Amino acid sequence: MVKVLAWRVLTLLLTLLLISIAVFLILEVLPGDPAAIMLGTSAQPDTLAALRHQMGLDQPALLRYIGWISGMFVGDLGTSYTYGVPVGELIRERLAVSIPLMLLAMTLVLSIAVPLGVFAAARRGRAVDHAATLFAQLGIAVPNFWIGLLLILLFSLQLRWFPASGFRGWGAGVWSGLHALILPAVALAIPQAAILTRVTRSAVLDVLNEDFVRTARAKGVSRNRALWRHVVPNAMVPVVTIVGLQVPFLIAGGVLVENVFTLPGMGRLALQALAQRDLVVIKNVVMVFAGLVILANLIADAAYLMLDPRLRRRA
Amino acid sequence: MTAAPPPTSRSRPGPRLLEKIVPRVKTSKGKPSWPLIGRLLKGVSAMSGVVRVGRRLAIILAAWGAATLLAPAQAAAAKTKLVLGMSIEPPGLDPTIAAPVAIGQVVWQNVFQGLVRIDRDGKVQPQLAESWTVSPDGLTYTFKLRSGVKFQNGEVFESSVAKFALERANGKDSANPQKRFYSVITAIETPSPDTLVLKLTAPSGNLLFWLAWPAAVMVEPKSAADNKTTPVGTGPFKLKSWVKGDRVELTRDPNYWDKSRAVALEDVTFRFINDSQAQVAALLSGDVDAFSEFTAPELYGKFQSDQRFAAVIGNTELKVVAGMNNARKPFDDPRVRRALMMAVDRNLLIKGAWSGFGTPIGSHYTPNDPGYIDLTGVYPYDPKKAKALLAEAGYPDGFSFSFKMPQMGYATRTAEVLQAMFADVGVKMNIVPTEFPAKWVAEVLLAADYDMTIVAHAEPLDIEIYARDKYYFNYKNPAFVKANAEAERTTDPAARAKLYGDAQKILADDVPALYLFVLPKLGVWNAKLEGLWKNEPIPSNDVTEVRWTE
Predict the structure, then answer these.
(1) Is this prediction's pTM over 0.90?
(2) Chain B 416-455, residues with CB within 8 Å of chain A CB atoms
(3) Cβ–Cβ under 8 Å, residues B174 and A47
(4) How confident is the model at residue B75, as a pLDDT?
(5) Residue B204: predicted pLDDT
(6) Mean pLDDT by 10 residues, chain A (315 residues)
(7) 8 Å CB contact of A41 and B459
(8) CB contact, 8 Å: B215 with chain A?
(9) Model pLDDT for residues B85-137, shown as the tens digit of each residue
(10) Chain B environment of A159 (Cβ under 8 Å)
(11) Residues in chain B closer than 8 A to A50 (CB atoms)
(12) Is A21 within the bounds of a domain?
């Protein structure tokens, strides 16, 4: 067991290292000199040279790469070109918005999609099934930022229940922070819930046809119990897979929703850094995203082990 | 299978209990019927569940309604807080070391002040320098500094601090965006704490104007290095907090040195919202009180007809100019350039690209600037003449070229209109999207590798770019260089204005770039606010004179 764990951690670190090399190389090749961009139309050769020296851009690539990687081990991710603050601090501030948003959205997704999918599969062909399928179609078809705009129109402008944009920070109170995140979470959750409903429904339908379900019913297990105690746990594996994919997407891919609601999250940070060619921030943000994806996969794997005892024995 | 027993609701008493209370009475028809009271009781008890829930809901709604009714009453009591929206977040808060105008739009006049300042009409006014004299040869400026001025950290402002600030802006390693205007200062002397003497290498008619800019604000030695994140200036507001990506909060400094000036606001918050729909939502919901530069002209009409808002349109210094590479064929021929200028209907272009908001220009100068002449009539819209001129220059069937287009809204829309207008005279324009700032700065601005492009030049009085040796227009005209140098040398404002008029005429005639229009300042704010600037002679959000009128 320890051997498996150690092997897992090693592959994780190796993956991150390969990603860091790829990111670094891509940014080297990308056109756009950060110093020229920062100075804009008033760039002169002497101010350009001064700024490049200040930003450390005149050093050779290998030295910069090694400096970056060794800095990561001690937790020093460098200083942002545009903001002038440590990147670690920047990322921490943004994660403080993106992770709660993701958790809120994921809670909504799971509480909508799993019951809906299961009911739709159990009562296949009936009203619930049609409603669930319709919801799934609509939810996938409609873009999340458009849902966000509609929510703002109704809940912020008409009803004045929620703020139309912005995030005051957790320092202003936990409830005020959550208050600002509810509408964006709903906007993010609806398309993901639609996808997950479809996946859950088809997974449960597959398992419903299995022999052991018929055996259980024949032995006297009630419909409900058979559904929730026998069918659903066996149908959860594809659901866990999709959830494992959706979690990093909700953190990184929420940039459109973050834009509509003007939330200072990770998606917007990545976008702004890219436009400004803030190489330091881009590199580290990509590494954070990669780390999150790998972490989400690890947790999904652990969840498989929990769900399917057969995997435990084989390991 | 046995039939399931009928469901019993726990909330209402079952039929048996009711029978005990109100016994059934036999009617003449033989069926038991409930007397009226019984019927009512049955009705009420049947509804009891609903009534209970309904009562709870009513209480909640009433409480919420009371809360919303109370809230505005609370807010109306103390209106000294302003929330101003901006579309771009400044990357730092020190305007003396970085170029983005968004920095000055947050801190200039609010946190930092300079020797002189520019007022809302574009005129230079004294600020930390009470008065000044210029020597007859224009090489010595003597400033009399104000006394009793303190920085927000308690340090005193005097000539040595002013010397430090100007030398820092001029320094070898300085990344000050307007350094080239201050580099004419060779020596700074401080004969006494309230006298500052600047010695110049050559006369500079615009020096005072550039000293009024955010790039020349006064900073003091102890705090200057940290101004990017914790700005310390002499202004009435100091930084309270900066939630990066969301807002900057300023609060009034109780120790502000200028007791004669009453600043009405206590708290100012700058919110950064770049999506135009989100800006509209923020204004309508009251989250934001004002946008001095609203970015979407097509959504502006909504505010013009809404009584709750004041929609004030003013001028900016943003000249939308389609630059041409004068070193490349066919743009090296002035006839081709003039023909292209005559192919453009400026008024239609403004209507199509910017919903009709904007002022057409004929040269690289705005109506805001001193000595402006309206030169849009030099090459007015005349496609027939344009085609004739192209034929004369050797292009009877037109020609094709590539257009490097940045992604800003005004650029993409103007490009599409220009493409159609040029097609009318037989010229084919191929649009090449070029990401701004990364690719555009590298390819167009620095390497001049382009045929035609478009960008809004934001700096006022930047007509001197056509006199520069190396600039992306590749325009070489000794007559213009001479005219511009003469204008820059002249210290008398009236003479200078006339000389700049001559310079404008040269450009309007030679057309090194297509002069299209000046972007408007679309201001929209709560109708109860007063004191916000109508025009933008300098990119700024000076809130020191803003107040609520109720």
Answers:
(1) no
(2) 435, 437-439, 441-443, 445-446, 455
(3) yes
(4) 47
(5) 86
(6) 78 90 86 72 72 79 86 83 83 91 94 94 90 94 92 89 84 86 94 95 92 91 88 90 90 85 89 82 90 88 84 66
(7) yes
(8) no
(9) 999 888 889 999 888 888 999 999 999 999 999 998 888 999 999 999 999 88
(10) none
(11) 172-175
(12) no
Q: For the ranges B72-81, B197-206, B234-243, B429-438, which has the lowest average pLDDT?
A: B72-81
Q: Is the pLDDT of residue B512 over 90?
A: yes
B134-160 confidence digits (pLDDT tens) = 998 889 999 999 999 999 999 999 999
Share of chain B above pLDDT 90, in %: 62
Indicate the Cα dihedral angle B152, B158, B164, B167, nearest 10°: 120
What mean pLDDT, rounded, does chain B reach?
86
How many CA atoms does the CB half-sphere of B539 hold within 13 Å? Answer: 23
The C-alpha atoms of residue B430 and residue A240 are separated, in whole angstroms, by: 49
Strand-pair partners of A86: A79
Output the domain CATH number for residue A235: 1.10.3720.10
With a cut of 80, say whether residue B550 has pLDDT above it: no
SS (H, E, C) B68-113: HHHHHHHHHHCCCEEEEEECCCCCCCCCCCCCCHHHHHHHECCCEC
Considering only the beta carbons, identify the residue of B91, B177, B442 that sits closest to A82: B91
Cβ within 8 Å, pair B243-A46? no
More confident residue, A297 or B71: A297
Report yes or no on A310 lying in a domain. Answer: yes
Inside any domain, residue A67: no
- Nearest C-alpha neighbor of A199 from the set A244, A155, A163: A244
Q: Touching check for B238 and chain A: CB below 8 Å?
A: no
- Inter-chain CB proximity A93 and B179 less than 8 Å: no
**Torsions phi, psi of B7, nearest 5?**
-65, 135
Find the domain containing A224 and state its range: 87-314
Report the alpha-carbon distance of residue B154 to residue B70 in Å, rounded: 41
Q: How far apart are CA B516 and CA B157, in angstroms?
A: 45
Contact indicator for B490, B205 with CB cutoff of 8 Å: yes
Confirm whether A27 is domain-assigned. no
Quickly list DSSP for A17-55.
HHHHHHHHHHHHHSS--HHHHHHGGG--HHHHHHHHHHH
CA closest to A42 among chain B residues: B177
Least Cα separation, residue A167 to chain B (angstroms): 7
Cβ separation of B285 and A94 shorter than 8 Å? Answer: no
Residues of A in contact with B229 (CB under 8 A): 84-85
Helix axes B334-342, B383-392, angle to 10 degrees: 160
Q: Are strands B32-33 and B25-26 parallel, antiparallel or unpaired?
A: antiparallel
CB atoms within 10 A of CB B54: 11
Angle (CA) A259 A263 A265, round 5°: 95
Residues 50-109 of B with CB under 8 A from A: 68, 89, 91-92, 98-100
- How many domains are there within chain A? 1
| Local structure of residue B172 (DSSP, 8 states) | T
* Min Cα–Cα distance to chain A from B320, Å: 14
B437: cis peptide before it, omega within 30°? yes
Question: DSSP labels for B327-367?
Answer: TSTTTTSHHHHHHHHHT--HHHHHHHHHTT-SEE-SSS--T
Of B177, B271, B437, the CB nearest to A166: B271
User: What is the tens place of the pLDDT at every residue in B41-50?
Assistant: 555 455 455 5
Nearest to residue B520, comparing CAs of B405, B384, B357? B357
CB contact under 8 A, A50 and B175: yes
**CB < 8 Å to B437, chain A:** 32, 36-37, 40, 275-277
pLDDT at B545 over 80: yes
On whether any CB of chain A is under 8 Å from the CB of B175, the answer is yes
